[in-house]
Specification:
11 helices; 255 residues; alpha/beta; binds 2-phosphoglycolic acid; TIM Barrel
Length: 255
């Protein structure tokens, strides 16, 4: 049985003051949920606020993480943040290969794969995002696109980190559903999740059964329960709805 994971992706939002309120609200909410241990909950915050999470969430069940990590271990890479640094700040998770990084920062599937590998090697859980654009979906290329994105990760991670592969988390995020209010139907999402799991199983059947595949793209309190009821949807990566404690907690409850 895979333990569900609900992870917030705050993107470039927040301030010390507003974060304090949001973190307190989420922590209090999940602390009070009787069924909460069945579901893991995390927030992925802008890097400058990791120290704030570390100090405020020490005794909370709420985990935290970053939104990107360097593909390099250390060195002359101005502006980059290494996996070891994220570990220093108590991160458990790091989002890797979000479509906004692929689109605006030129991250290729190969770069994303090396980032995932660095995260795993440092004991972090990478949340590797895959997903098709609207044009790709309309031309019937969804399966090919997400499989190519996953394949790149498997080629780098699987041979090096066989034991670590099970710690990987995937997130299927159709680009056309991110921040648009358009959600994939539960059936559309399930079809892609099943395809991803089958591809994982071809690489490592045991790992595939345990790897969590999250759905992301306008998941909100109104649609979360139906999406999360699908057999291969193991949680959510939540953007907009993660910025309001009450909406985020409603999704956690649905999980
Ligand atoms: P959204 O974002 O929930 O606002 O659509 C999801 C994401 O980009 O991870």
């Amino acid at each position: 049985m895979r333990r569900k994971l609900i992870a917030g992706n705050w993107k470039m939002h927040g301030s010390l003051t507003s974060n304090a309120g949001l973190l307190a609200g989420i922590s209090a909410g999940i602390g009070a949920e009787s069924g909460a241990p069945q579901c893991e909950v995390a927030v992925c915050v802008p890097a400058p606020y990791l120290a704030q999470c570390q100090s405020l969430l020490q005794d909370s069940r709420l985990a935290w993480g970053a939104q990107d990590v360097s593909a390099h271990a250390a060195g002359a890479y101005t502006g980059e943040i290494s996996a070891a640094m994220l570990q220093d700040f108590g991160c458990r998770f790091v989002i890797v290969g979000h479509s906004e990084r692929r689109a605006y920062h030129g991250e290729t599937s190969a770069v994303v794969a090396h980032k995932a590998q660095r995260a795993l090697a440092a004991g972090l859980v990478p949340i590797v995002c895959v997903g098709e654009t609207l044009a790709e979906r309309e031309s019937g290329a969804t399966g090919a696109v997400v499989q190519e994105q996953l394949q790149a990760v498997l080629e780098v991670v699987a041979p090096v980190d066989t034991a670590q592969l099970k710690n990987l988390v995937l997130a299927y995020e159709p680009v056309w559903a991110i921040g648009t209010g358009k959600t994939a139907t539960p059936e559309m999402a399930q079809e892609v999740h099943a395809l991803l799991r089958a591809r994982l199983a071809a690489a490592d059947a045991e790992a595939a059964a345990g790897i969590r595949i999250l759905y992301g793209g306008s998941m909100k309190p109104e649609n979360a329960a139906d999406l999360l009821a699908m057999p291969d949807i193991d949680g959510g990566l939540i953007g907009g709805a993660a910025l309001k404690a009450e909406d985020f907690l409603a999704i956690v409850r649905a999980a």
